[in-house]
Automatic annotation (TrEMBL):
Residue stretches making up the IclR-ED domain: 80-228
Signal peptide: none
The keyword DNA-binding belongs to this UniProt entry's keyword annotation: yes
Stored SMART domains: HTH_ICLR (SM00346)
UniProt xrefs under Pfam families: HTH_IclR, IclR_C
Record-linked PANTHER family: HELIX-TURN-HELIX TRANSCRIPTIONAL REGULATOR, ICLR FAMILY (PTHR30136), HTH-TYPE TRANSCRIPTIONAL REPRESSOR ALLR (PTHR30136:SF24)
One annotated GO biological process: negative regulation of DNA-templated transcription
Stated name of the protein: DNA-binding transcriptional regulator, IclR family
InterPro entries listed in its UniProt record: GAF-like_dom_sf (IPR029016), HTH_MetabolicPath_Reg (IPR050707), Tscrpt_reg_IclR_C (IPR014757), Tscrpt_reg_IclR_N (IPR005471), WH-like_DNA-bd_sf (IPR036388), WH_DNA-bd_sf (IPR036390)
Superkingdom field: Bacteria
Keywords: DNA-binding, Transcription, Transcription regulation
Amino acid sequence: MNEFEKGSDPESGGGATRSVDRALRVLIAVLEPEAQDTTLSGIARATELSPSTASRLLATLSTHGLVSRDTDGRYRTGVRMKQIAAEALRDDPLYEASGPHLAQLAAETGETASLGIAAEPGAVLYLRQAASDRQVQTKVWTGRTIPREGTALGAALDGHAEPGTAHVSHRTDSDVVAIASAIYSAHGEVIGAISVNSPQFRTTDDEIASFGAAVSKQAILLSRAMGAPPALFSRTASGTA
């Protein structure tokens, strides 16, 4: 028996919907950045599906190139899935425009620079990063999400600082100082935020001020590249908020 239940009418959406839902749950279980076990048994547990059902769905996803199976039995992102992701990012103007600004920010500060966007309610998605070249650096978290509450990127996305200024968050739980500034669209709406993350032990107050100015500058330049009106930043003062 296939994933459609016996006697169900695919046009009615019942069996078809369940089948699609199961397949998407399996795909997400493979692609989830925090996934610890992407073997068949691990995916079955994560999706609460029987191993036989998970196996059939993985086989179908593999046929379409959305997942692939390594020699160690773990499932990974398939070539077709990577192609789809790359095409989607190429169609994102903010992602495309952010590259040079993140690279410049990382070069100026010597720390990891990030682009974040709003994700599901209460979360921020790390969409793109330029890594620090220092031996000790913060993690590169591209594709992962963090809470909006209590984070610099979240505060910037929520508009807690004047346009063109930066918000500082001291994450004592992770010994990280984060400095972020919002990115604005042509309509003056917040569409993302860029940040610098620095290990707290080596970040002085003077560096926080310097990093804040650098983040604010690149946020303004990126916002202008996205069509934000210059008047939006007329009250801007360099530094942090």
